[in-house]
Amino acid sequence: MLCNLISIDLIFYDLRFTITNIYLHGSTANKTLNALVNTPADPCEAQIYCGDFNLHHPLWSLDGAPAPSIAANADTLAEWILANKLEVINSPNTPTRRGRRGQRDSIIDLTITNNTVSQGNLILEWESTSFGAMGSNHNSIGWKFTICPPKDTQPPEELMRFVIDMENQDKWIKAITRLLKENPPLQIYNSTEDIELGAWSILKAMSNATDCSMKLTKVHKRQLQAPWWNAACSDMVATLEHSVDSKSRSSALGHLRSTIRTARRNFADCICLQVSPDNIFSLTKWSKGERHIPLPPLVMDGRTATIPDDQALMLKSVFFPTTAPPVDMSPLGIPVLATRAHHNITANKIASALSGASNKLAPGAFGLNYQLLKWLFESHPKSLVDLYNACLIFGYHPKCLCNALVAVIPKPRKPDMLAPKAYRPILLLETLSKCLEEIMAARIIFEIGKHNILPYTQFGGRDNLLCVDGGLALCHNIYAAWLHGKFASLLTLDISGYFNNVNHSRLMS
């Protein structure tokens, strides 16, 4: 694929069509055109070719315009169009390039279709207009597709999420207070069924309170491509589009560029003013922006998955196999330590866990982020204290808190993005569950350090021994070997799906 010749295959229901964008310019024009005309296309599929061809020919010239000088490439393109029974759908009365400094208007930006497109009337309202050209002498070209879905096709349900607005805090607290009063959680938990019921009642109350007080928006709603754009930029664009001569157009274009630079600088200054020393590194994430790109087709064992449902099933079979691999349950020789008594979870421990939690973390299936859990704890701390202590006493984690959304993200620097193993899952749990897990994890890490349960050769999963320390220790051993004239070798193991395939029986033994 050439950089000046790019094709996109699209499938809508049972209709498959291809849009090919082409740009003939400079030293690569001949190579690009030859690649286009020498690549056969399936005549049974809808084919649309569009772009800047930079060629003049009577086949697509303006009505009433003088006969253009014809280059060899123009004849090659015209012969290819006629031989393949293609059609140039440009209007012969509408130029696509506006002449400047004595040049004539012309048609050099073409939209070419095959019989499948023409007979099916797939393209309507083709237009070429100077509005949207942003000062370019090439017009903005657009058209509409007309694709009729099958009669029994149901439109997919739109995924929605709540927008947590800080200004609605009082409204949310009033709603949660009313709901917990109408259906209060248990104060004394006598069984695991009571714990399940209590956790569910809290989740339901939080969800209903959010529904009463917060607005809904679409998931992955298209964000503004340029959040820095302001009214001054729009005014300058209008001035540029209404310029009638080259002098005023050049002046308006210069003012537009200056206005855009000012708007972007002011927007960046406002972002920097909102950053405190505690979250200074959030600027690096903000500067990268957000990308919402659908998964490409996935291929595994000769099967190809293109629609989201099929892709989800394929990824599920890779991430979460139905049968666990066999595990040797023989003793590992680890000494068994005496069981130690636990102490209850206090409100201070919950407050400490919530204080360091980010409100921007992705929520679980109920759409309840940490901000809502903090509001619940501020207004009704006893409900969380009672539930968490009951989970601790019975050694039980509610099943309703084990449900998770699985978000799939690509692994960095993978050469083949069609393989399911090029992606990794991220589990989005309920914040009500993550808070309890953080409290218990902190308690376990403390016990590990106090009683020296883990060897010091393990880095990570314990206080004051990070993976960075492991790297420093490794470098020290390598340099020590070199100092004594020895060779150093390193063997690393990458266990596929380690966390998803941990054997719980082996872990608990």
From TrEMBL:
Tell me which Pfam families the record gives. Exo_endo_phos_2
Keywords attached to this Swiss-Prot or TrEMBL record, sorted alphabetically, are:
Nucleotidyltransferase, RNA-directed DNA polymerase, Transferase
Instruction: Tell me yes or no: is Signal among this UniProt entry's keywords.
Output: no
* SUPFAM superfamilies listed in its UniProt record: DNase I-like
Question: Locate the Endonuclease/exonuclease/phosphatase domain: which residues?
Answer: 18-141
Would you say which domain of life the source belongs to? Eukaryota
Q: Its Gene Ontology molecular function terms?
A: RNA-directed DNA polymerase activity
Q: What is the name of this protein? A: Reverse transcriptase (RNA-dependent DNA polymerase)
Which source organism does the UniProt entry give? Rhizoctonia solani
